[in-house]
Amino acid sequence: MFTKIPKEQRDEMIGRIQSFHYEQTGDEIGDLGAENWFDFFMKEIGPFLYNKGVMDSKDVLMDKMLLLEDDLYALKRPVNPK
């Protein structure tokens, strides 16, 4: 479902997990532990966030389509009856 995340971004996110864990608990979490949390979030939480992004995109697109429809109706010309 997800595309491969570039290593630089993955490493950044893992570092943020480690920082968050330390701030919350005062304990350090190693790379393996943070990677396990990252993998969990991607597998279990990621689909919820992805679907929310899809629905938000759909809503924006629908709003744009309504504006486009209004613009198209504004271009119509009256037809004189004979």
Automatic annotation (TrEMBL):
It holds the Pfam family DUF2164. This is DUF2164 domain-containing protein. It comes from Rossellomorea vietnamensis.
